[in-house]
Specification:
The protein is α/β, with parallel strands linked by helices. Helix content is about 40%, strand content about 25%. The longest helix has 17 residues.
């Protein structure tokens, strides 16, 4: 079972146009609208892969209502914590004439202390009924203290569940002190945490240093260059998927969904990494974050070989 803390949901709109140019009118040939934000992208993928997933989603206003409708349409179970502010909207524009995306993302609205208290209570109630994993993705919203994510990690451990974390900055630094069971960050986020230049940083070295702080599993993703995972004395290297797509938004979240759902089912770390890498690659093949074809994912997974050292 996987409980997902949906602290910063969004309504995600992806427009596909023939040739994006600033200052021009565009008629999209495709529009994908989905319940987004890192946590909801992760939850959708984990659910699509057969996971028993439930999201505690902080939603507000008509946009929040739309996000809830899309979650329900995706078959993702969720409980709503009502927010006094409108849920944000994030827009991506994909141009058929290039591989670049233009992205316009709203910041998540501030979360008042009374809403945060209801979030903690809702997560706690879910964890008492649903042993397994607590997944936390994304930075906390404004006005919450840096230790807010660490508080969620502590709550998960107090309820006897494992905690998977994908965040960055001050929230990540604070949370490492309470040893989440799985940390998944990208190379740039890891380098920022450790105060090193990301351009020359070795992902294995970064993972080793972070694991020195948590003594738990650490996964570093590096886009099309693949990923590495450090677990005790073993290092796992995952090469880049043979197939690459034009829509990478949400691939890291899809990776997280594939990773946690396999681990929740009792899979080994190498097998979970194969599913995770395939999920990230499959996500990039189609527009929309956390939107993928499980059949395509299964085919990509067969092409991936995880190396152990």
């Amino acid at each position: 079972m996987i409980t997902v803390a949906g602290l910063t949901p969004s309504l995600d709109l992806t427009y596909v146009v023939d040739n994006f140019r600033l200052g021009r009118i565009h008629r999209p040939r495709e529009l994908v609208s989905c319940a987004g934000g890192k946590s909801l992208n992760m939850a959708r993928v984990a659910s699509r892969l057969g996971g028993d997933v439930r999201v505690i989603a902080v939603l507000g206003g008509p946009t929040g209502h739309q996000v809830g409708e899309r979650l329900a349409a995706d078959g993702v179970a969720f409980d709503v914590v009502e927010a006094p502010t409108e849920t944000r909207t994030c827009v991506s524009i994909a141009s058929g004439s290039s591989d670049e995306l233009t992205e316009v993302y709203q910041y998540a609205p501030a979360m008042p202390p009374e809403v945060w208290a209801r979030v903690l209570a809702a997560v706690d109630a879910d964890l008492t009924r649903r042993p397994g994993w607590l997944s936390i993705s994304g930075a906390p919203p404004a006005e919450l203290p840096d230790h807010a994510v660490a508080d969620l990690v502590r709550l998960g451990h107090a309820r006897g569940v494992r905690v998977a974390l994908d965040t960055h900055g001050a929230a990540l630094a604070a949370a490492l002190g309470v040893a989440p069971d799985l940390v998944k960050v990208n190379r740039v986020e890891a380098a920022e945490l450790l105060g090193v230049d990301p351009s020359g940083a070795n992902p294995v070295g970064l993972a080793d240093q972070i694991r020195g702080l948590t003594r738990r599993v650490v996964v570093i993703t590096d886009g099309r260059a693949g990923s590495v995972a450090v677990d005790g004395a073993e290092t796992h290297r995952v090469p880049a998927a043979v197939r690459s797509g034009r829509f990478p938004v949400g691939s890291g979240d899809s990776f997280m969904g594939g990773l946690v759902v396999d681990l929740d089912r009792g899979g080994s770390l190498p097998d979970a990494l194969r599913t995770a890498a395939a999920a990230g690659a499959a996500n990039a093949l189609v527009p929309g974050p956390g939107v993928l074809d499980p059949v395509e994912l299964a085919a990509i997974r067969e092409e991936i070989v995880v190396e152990r050292t």
